[in-house]
């Protein structure tokens, strides 16, 4: 199959692209910078998805079966300006994807922050894109998947994020501390995220489908730090589960046959071994 992937040089987009290639698919990857991916089935298109008019020609010529939208302009900038840019560019991308005769399914990435009780520019942007994709799916009969990604971690994540910063502190012999130890998050390895996105793209139907992509377990940040410390000490420990904000993974299990495969302890062990 042929996949068009936006944001293929990003943390999640790169993992998705690599898995697609491993499974024998052809990929046209769109990104602002080099992805570092070299594969005979991979075609790179260096451009910004906010300038979609420049990309229509290569995309039409590629004739993708599936589109995966993983790009975000100004990574980790959730200001009004950045969100407005991303919303308009995302609307143009989705409209174009649904208009291509070759495209059967469109998958786009949301966020667990959509569940926040407080409306933010970021949640407004994501929810608007999800509703727009739903409307297009209903009017065109094409598949649409919206995956709400929880707290992804793994190789290629920015160093300032929690788990990479804890691993770095561990290697430097410094105390493993976090500023808000009682905060609760659901951490999911990036390879499990990529696997969910690919599976969701394979399972086509004319209905829009909203799926959570997390481990299904909420953990206090202090427990995550303890888990990292345990890995450095050679222990195979799992932090204790707590009630809190976690993904509902029953639906993706039933609908696309996906469940996370990499435990937090195993994922952290992989990161420690790679540093």
3D structure, described in words:
The radius of gyration is 19 Å and the shape is globular. Helix 4 links the parallel strand 5 and strand 6. The chain has a domain of 149 residues: NAD(P)-binding Rossmann-like Domain (Rossmann fold, 3-Layer(aba) Sandwich). The protein is 40% helix and 18% strand. By secondary structure, it is an alpha/beta fold. The mean pLDDT is 90. The two termini are 35 Å apart. The protein contains nine helices and eleven strands.
CATH superfamily label of the domain at 1-149: NAD(P)-binding Rossmann-like Domain
Tell me the number of helical segments per DSSP (H or I, 4 or more residues long). Answer: 9
Query: Overall pLDDT, averaged?
Result: 90
Named at the architecture level, the CATH assignment of the domain at 1-149 is: 3-Layer(aba) Sandwich
- CATH class placement of the domain at 1-149: Alpha Beta
Distance between the termini: 35 Å
Largest sheet: 7 strands, parallel
Order of helices and strands: EHEEHEHEHEEHEEHEEHHH
Unreliable stretches covering 5 or more consecutive residues: none
Strand order of the largest sheet: 3-2-1-4-5-6-10
Q: What does the radius of gyration come to?
A: 19 Å
Overall form: globular
Give the fraction of residues assigned to helices: 40-55%
Q: Briefly note the structural class of the backbone.
A: alpha/beta
| CATH fold name of the domain at 1-149 | Rossmann fold
The number of distinct β-strands equals 11
Instruction: Give the percentage of residues in beta strands.
Output: 15-25%
């Amino acid at each position: 199959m042929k996949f068009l992937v936006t944001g293929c040089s990003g943390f999640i987009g790169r993992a998705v692209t690599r898995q697609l290639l491993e499974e024998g698919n052809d990929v046209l990857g769109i990104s602002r910078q080099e992805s570092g991916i070299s594969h005979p089935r991979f075609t790179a298109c260096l451009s910004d998805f906010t300038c979609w008019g420049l990309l229509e020609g290569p995309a039409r010529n590629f004739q993708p079966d599936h589109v995966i939208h993983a790009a975000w302009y100004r990574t980790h900038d959730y200001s009004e300006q950045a969100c407005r840019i991303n919303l308009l560019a995302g609307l143009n991308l989705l409209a174009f994807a649904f208009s291509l005769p070759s495209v059967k399914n469109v998958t786009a990435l949301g966020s667990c922050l959509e569940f926040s009780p407080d409306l933010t520019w970021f949640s407004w942007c994501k929810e608007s894109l999800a509703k727009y994709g739903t409307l297009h799916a209903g009017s065109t009969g094409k598949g649409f998947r919206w995956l709400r990604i929880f707290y992804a971690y793994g190789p290629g994540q920015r160093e300032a994020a929690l788990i990479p910063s804890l691993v770095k502190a561990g290697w430097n012999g410094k105390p493993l501390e976090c500023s808000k130890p009682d905060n609760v998050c659901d951490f999911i390895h990036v390879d499990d995220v990529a696997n969910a996105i690919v599976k969701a793209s394979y399972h086509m139907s004319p209905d829009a489908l909203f799926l959570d992509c997390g481990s299904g377990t909420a953990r206090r940040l202090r427990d995550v730090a303890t888990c990292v410390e345990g890995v450095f000490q050679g222990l195979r420990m799992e932090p204790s589960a707590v009630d809190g904000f976690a993904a509902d993974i029953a639906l993706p299990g039933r609908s696309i046959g996906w469940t996370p495969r990499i435990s937090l302890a195993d994922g952290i062990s992989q990161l420690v071994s790679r540093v």
